[in-house]
Amino acid sequence: MNVTQALSQRRSVRAFLPQAPSADIVRALIEGAARAASGGNVQPWRVLALTGEPLAQALQAVAQAEPEPYANNLSYPPDLWEPYRSRRFANGEDLYRSLGIPRDNKAARLEQLAKNAEFFGAPVGLFICVDKRMGLPQWMDLGIYLQSLMLLAVEHGLGTCAQGFWRRYDSALAQHLGLPENYCVGVGVALGYEDKQAPINTWQASRAPFEEWAELRGF
């Protein structure tokens, strides 16, 4: 598999088989992704991989915690503007459509949303953490690391779903996981073998056409 193939196959997987990948594979992903570009070679990431009882205990700690205010951990800017608002809306509608959940069935939508707190049933949960004192350039490094990790997962036949959801429980997770002082959870990643029979895994988010967001000049 080459990089182009991994990019085209990668998508957010939200239903997993119970079989956990081996420790050797998980380590290979985490360690291999550290070849990601990093400004000044700072390498600002800190990664924890949980499975089995440690994962169950972390999920339990979150279930017993109060979510932090949205204002402290927004995934999107407030009052998202066009064309970004429409893209986000269409993505959500496509997701629920794959499950046969209409817009007026709020209970079913909330039930699906709650699966975020279970890593969507993935047998491995990754927490990618960063020192709060780091700035925007280091958070960019974190994103490069995350993409590298997810592409390596595709190469190994694994599915992932990156989740900003876990930032809502940063304090509870930092305490439960014993993170060093000043560290926070930047993103969580559900990791495992994709359940290819699950309806929610039958669609892939679209991308805007090249002409909408890019230009070639001087070519």
Summarize the structure.
The chain has helices at residues 3-9, 23-32, 52-63, 84-98, 106-114, 136-155, 170-177, 210-213, and strands spanning 46-51, 124-131, 159-163, 183-192.
Would you write up a description of this structure?
Helix 1 packs across helix 6. The chain has one domain: NADH Oxidase, CATH 3.40.109.10. The model has no long low-confidence stretch (mean pLDDT about 95). The chain is built from 8 helices and 4 strands. The chain has about 220 residues and is an alpha+beta fold. The protein is globular. A 4-stranded antiparallel β-sheet has the order 1-2-4-3, with helices on both faces. It starts with a helix and ends in a 6-residue tail after the last helix.
Q: Main beta sheet, described?
A: 4 strands, antiparallel
Can you identify the CATH superfamily?
Answer: NADH Oxidase
User: What is the CATH-assigned architecture?
Assistant: 3-Layer(aba) Sandwich
Q: How many separate domains make up the residues?
A: 1
Distance between the termini: 30 Å
Q: Please indicate the percent range of residues in DSSP E strands (runs of 2 or more).
A: 5-15%
Cα Rg: 18 Å
Question: Quick one: how many beta strands?
Answer: 4
Helix percent band: 25-40%
